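Query structure, 155 tokens:
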């Protein structure tokens, strides 16, 4: 084998070809890369890591405010004889009684009243008539979705 045979074989090897060695019967694959770069040349390398995450998910949310709201119902009575009183003014306060009522209603002809769509919490009721009868009911606890029945006896 002469010098030209080796250079031809090296030239074929750099191209990634398979070369058979006749004497040993083995195959040899050679791959090479050429990197021509001046050693003194400056390089700018951005080593800031960048990560992209993609996640697909579906959220089905249904919001119905009535599901979480509470309700206070009740009947108004005269305390001395348990007679049903109609047209009684009902003032609802959030927490303790203060200057501003959060809801105002009147009892119907059967003494019934209903206050709906209340957020969970503690409430107080002031009930009164135009004839000087009144009563205060404090600390009515309303939970989410709960209906509380409260009888009010006026004195």
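Result returned for the query:
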């Amino acid at each position: 084998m002469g010098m030209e045979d080796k250079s031809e074989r090296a030239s074929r090897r750099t191209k990634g070809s398979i070369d058979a060695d006749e004497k040993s019967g083995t195959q040899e694959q050679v791959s090479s890369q050429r990197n021509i770069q001046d050693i003194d040349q400056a390089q700018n390398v951005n080593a800031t890591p960048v990560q992209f995450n993609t996640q697909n998910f579906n959220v089905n949310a249904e919001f119905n405010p009535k599901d979480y709201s509470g309700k206070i119902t009740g009947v108004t009575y005269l305390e001395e004889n348990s007679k049903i009183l109609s047209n009684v003014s009902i003032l609802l306060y959030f927490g303790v009684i203060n200057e501003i009522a959060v809801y105002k209603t009147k009892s119907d002809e059967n003494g019934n009243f209903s206050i709906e769509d209340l957020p969970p919490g503690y409430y107080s009721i002031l009930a009164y008539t135009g004839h000087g009868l009144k009563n205060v009911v404090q600390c009515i606890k309303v939970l989410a979705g709960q209906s509380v029945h409260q009888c009010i006896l006026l004195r």
